[in-house]
């Protein structure tokens, strides 16, 4: 029972760490499907800026899946703002505010001993600008 409670608390804590923030730079448009949003690494010829977006993945070990999740968050937020593109500014890895650890111990009559180990975790962060690309 205790292990189930700890596992549930850990899962909730890890998923709560993923987030997206936005700063509006222009007017939002009607929402579109995320599948219609294209990710750009270089600016297209003509576009309008809608918002600055910053997102982070859930806690993990700095995997490609975390990078994909952070970029997917940018795309979903851009689509909600009606942007048909995201100009990717960068992706980086940061130490997580959550530390995964295991511990064990033994306590006797004359005192106690406790042993623990922590596993370093990381989050992937992505930054971009939600844009509306203007066709020539």
UniProtKB/TrEMBL annotation:
<feature type="signal peptide">
    <location>
        <begin position="1"/>
        <end position="18"/>
    </location>
</feature>
<protein>
    <recommendedName>
        <fullName>Lipoprotein</fullName>
    </recommendedName>
</protein>
<keyword id="KW-0732">Signal</keyword>
């Amino acid at each position: 029972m205790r292990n189930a409670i700890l596992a549930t608390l850990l899962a909730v804590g890890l998923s709560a760490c993923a987030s997206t923030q936005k700063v509006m730079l222009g007017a939002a448009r009607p929402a579109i499907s995320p599948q219609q949003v294209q990710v750009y690494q270089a600016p297209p010829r003509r576009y309008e800026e809608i918002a600055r977006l910053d997102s982070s993945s859930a806690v993990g070990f700095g995997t490609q899946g975390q990078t994909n999740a952070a970029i997917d968050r940018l795309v979903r937020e851009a689509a909600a703002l009606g942007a048909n593109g995201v100009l990717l500014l960068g992706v980086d890895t940061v130490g997580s505010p959550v530390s995964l650890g295991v511990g064990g111990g033994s306590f006797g009559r004359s005192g106690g001993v406790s042993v623990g180990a922590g596993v370093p975790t990381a989050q992937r962060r992505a930054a971009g600008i939600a844009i509306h690309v203007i066709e020539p």
